[in-house]
Specification:
This protein is α/β, with parallel strands linked by helices. Helix content is about 55%, strand content about 10%. The longest helix is centred in the last third of the chain and has 28 residues.
Length: about 350
């Protein structure tokens, strides 16, 4: 006998509660299922994801992890660094979650999602969790639901969540809005390489780590590090930074050198911000921005999900393309009708 709608709803709610308990207990498979749920675009899955996050908040309370945002130019060795850094931390008793965002094809929409292959040793570590996700249509170097994935990892008891963005540039600065510390990974180069780094991303970096400081590249890496250190001294000091930050440092994922020192600086900076009230203020601001983004995304989903609205926008789009209406005027008309609930 088929279930009634009420029975199906009750069963789904029970399953969400069980999933929340499994995630809170640190189950990696449950965490993977939970992230898949929050990343789903289905309306029923969205409702279940909201319920799941609410249940977890009640179970785990204010459980928090250190959130590290990591960005860097292609080929800089982000995956090698994350694996070496993650293994060092799990070896010290930490639980590390890695949320790696891979770029999606603008044609097919697909992603390679090869981070587990590139971080093979870390992916086998029982104290680590690696989740590659496609960026899909989201900008900013992260996915639309990265914030919720971070919250799930915190609820699962991971004490460090590392968010790896798709690349480096002005748009990737969005990851700084969901992390406690923002790490910029660079390769030996200096000169032209320094000129290619956008000022905006330099201004939000807490640490610049020059990777591949080993072998024949040790000398060029040292010069590059000095170049970045000089550039950082020209930037205005932020109120949330202690003296000496942001700073540039040398690391080698291949040899493992500099990783412990970088970790010490990350902990020092995080603790300094906690002691001086900047940590809580930053987290509160991030939560507010998360709420505002959810509202914007919800409005956009309703705007584009209604067939009548889609038809009206298509008609106005044809008028704009033909040059009979300006884009600004057409947008104003749609928004005005939306305000009145009369888009048809």
């Amino acid at each position: 006998m088929a279930m009634t709608a009420d029975e199906a709803t009750a069963q789904a709610e029970a399953q969400i509660k069980v999933l929340a308990q499994e995630v809170a207990a640190g189950g990696r498979r449950a965490l993977a299922r939970a992230i898949t749920l929050v990343e789903s675009g289905r309306a029923d899955h969205r409702a279940q994801a909201v319920a799941l996050l609410d249940h977890l908040r009640k179970i785990t309370g204010a459980r928090q992890a250190l959130r590290l945002g990591l960005s860097g130019t292609p080929g800089v060795g982000k995956s090698s660094f994350i694996e070496a850094f993650g293994l060092m931390l799990t070896g010290a008793g930490h639980r590390v979650a890695v949320l790696a965002v891979d770029p999606s094809s603008t044609r097919s929409g697909g992603s390679i999602l090869g981070d587990k292959t590139r971080m093979e040793r870390l992916s086998r570590d029982p104290n680590a969790f690696i989740r590659p996700s496609p960026s899909q249509t989201a900008l900013g170097g992260v996915t639309r639901r990265t914030r919720e994935a971070v919250a799930l990892c915190e609820a699962a008891g991971f004490d460090l969540v590392l968010i790896e963005t798709v690349g480096v540039g002005q748009s990737e600065t969005m990851v700084a809005g969901m992390s406690d510390l923002f790490i910029l990974l660079m390769a030996p180069g200096g000169g032209d390489e320094l000129q290619g780094v956008k000022r905006g991303i330099m201004e939000i970096a807490d640490l610049i780590l020059v990777n591949k400081a080993d072998g024949d590249l040790r000398g060029p890496a040292s010069r590059t590090c000095a170049d970045y250190a000089g550039a950082l001294r020209l930037l205005r000091r932020r109120a949330e930074d202690p003296p000496g930050f942001p700073k540039a440092m040398l690391v080698s994922a291949l040899e493992g050198t500099g990783l412990a020192e970088a970790w010490e600086d990350m902990q020092y900076l995080a603790n300094w911000r906690k002691d001086h009230g900047h940590w809580d203020a930053r987290r509160a601001d991030q939560a507010r921005r998360w709420f505002e983004e959810e509202v914007r995304l919800g409005v956009l989903a309703r705007l584009t999900g209604d067939k009548a609205t889609q038809a009206r926008m298509a008609a106005l789009g044809a008028e704009v393309a033909a040059g009979r209406v300006t884009p600004a005027a057409a947008a104003t008309e749609v928004l005005a009708q939306l305000d009145q609930g009369l888009v048809r």
